[in-house]
Amino acid sequence: MSTSYPFGFLDEYAKKEIRRSTLKAVAIPGYQVPYSSREMPMGRGFGTGGLQLTLALIGKNETLKVIDQGSDDSVNAVNLRHFIEMTCEGINTTTKTEDADIVQSRHRIPEKPLREDQLLVLQVPYPDPLIVVEPSEDKRKMLHGEADYSRLLVKLYEDIVTFDEITISHRYPTRINDHYVIDPSPIPRWDVPKINQSKALILFGAGREKKIYAVPPHTKAEPLAFDDVPFRTEEFFDDHGQRRACRRCCCTSSYLDEFVDSTTGQKVYQCSDTDWCEQQMIQSIEIQKAGVA
Amino acid sequence: MGYVAIKGGGQAIEGTKQVFEYLRTRENESTLPLDTSTIENQLRLLHSRVISEGGVYDPRLASLAIKQAQGDTLEAAFALRAYRSTKPRLLETPVLDTADMRITRRISSAFKDIPGGQMLGATTDYHLRLMRMDMLDESPEHFRAMTKDWFKKINIDDIPDTFPKVLAGLRAEGLLPKINEADRSQQPFDITREPLIFPLPRSAALATMTRAEQGSLLAIAYSNMRGYGDVHPTVAELRVGFLPVLLPHPITGELTEIGEVEMTECEVIAMYEDENGDEKPTFTLGYGACFGHNEVKAISMAILDRALQRGMKHGPANPSEDPEFVLLHVDGIDSMGFCTHYKMPHYVTFQSDMDRLRTTQQKKDKKESVE
Fold first, then answer.
1. Which residues in chain A (169-228) have CB-CB distances under 8 A to chain B?
2. Minimal Cα–Cα distance from A235 to chain B, Å?
3. Number of domains in chain A
4. What is the pTM of this model?
5. Which structural domain range is residue A277 located in?
6. Can you tell me the distance from the alpha carbon of B265 to that of B19, in angstroms, rounded to the nearest whole number?
């Protein structure tokens, strides 16, 4: 039996449907476009929505970067990249953000700002920010149509009353183009401002929940907040109020992963975006060299 | 250090593939690899389950899927589904009449005597669930003797090819709702080509349930049977057999048999309700059907079909009557995928969770020290 699959794995009808749904998503910023979503050979929840977008959009000679948790070498990123390489003959892959035409990512937006000619595909487990306040999809659809996000705002308010803080850590509800509120996928709050007026088109694919949505380039994206309680991103300060730095590249302006060094037992911090970390190190070496010379 | 930024993801994946294969092949040197027809025959009901949940009728590939998944039904059905994603939909069959099924088993719990008679066929219903120690040591000779013996005893001419449907008799008596011709002319909803947007037509609900994971369907149907619902079904007919698949001949256009699919079909009758307006009340119906021999699945589906019809009409009074609750939670490929995804790294989001908790804790500390 033949093991050869069509370019992009999916049959042509499926790709056409995804492209059409994507066009609709771009035309109505933040609106969740339902699509039929085929089963992919990896688990629902492992990025099948993002994968379907990438497979339907990538063409020969284009360059792809796949990251998970900011890393190109995390098992899931490796797995997705292998599969796309296997089924899309003639494409290139890279780990460098600036060389990629398409970046498919789970949980992070690259630290390096994307350009107009680049495309960011985010993998989405829960496409609907209203799910925390309304379990029925039918009812949520009506709330979105009427731009009725009062229950979400009440949830934020209740957080402040109970904890003196908005407790939403990631998947921070964000209003797009003054209408639809989206779940920006489980990116940290750190990455949410990158969506606002992004030069690159950002596409969101939820395979299991069968939805595609988009934030077109140069579009307003506003995290929900109150006038007197502004939106805040994650803080990385030590006990003395100093911004922590990455232990590899010494960057003090990137999202950090915290872990325990197994030899010293000390808590250490490192850039979550591995390409960013790499580029910072190369730069600092070059600066050093220049200094020596 | 097992840290994500350190290279090694690719190697780790290669390693896990190898150890997974090793466990399959390690038994001993004399062991024969399972062949696909052995799986189809000796693990017949496992095979049925996978072909039904996979939603593509290819018995050989279903066996292969079981083999490569090392017997995990969810994984095996998953492989079939993913294979299906690569195939375009080229043709549609007309609606096929299950009265034409070549029956291997059919029973009714509504009547003792049904037209054509009850035919028990192959079932474990009346097996004593005792350990059959004799099966610990079987030989190919024993297999051959069994089949030879069975053919000697049976008179194939005694068994009719098809049987009339039990429901046809009840319908003729006016005990069942009339067939709605408007419904009949409607194109069935194709869940593989269209997204589910609620409210859904009944055909979309049926199509979703026919590929659903058996245990999930059973659990929700059981909640209805136990009391979170009120269907109280009577199995009018449960039939298992091979349904001829017809397609128009490419030249003459005449309907031609292109093969057959093994199916299980269940029709349940539930009590009448006061909802027919001026017309006489009739019993209500629930329908279940799926690929392969899966009786628990077909019965669960029929009960849920009946429960969902009620929920669609009057609004859900319990979970089994809620189309969103039932239909969005019974797919095995979806649910197992999402369940297993929690094993993936969530470092970034957890970092963000910790940031929130620490900030909240600090605020609480400050407040307490002020007080």
1. 169-171, 186-190, 208, 210
2. 7
3. 2
4. 0.88
5. 256-292
6. 41
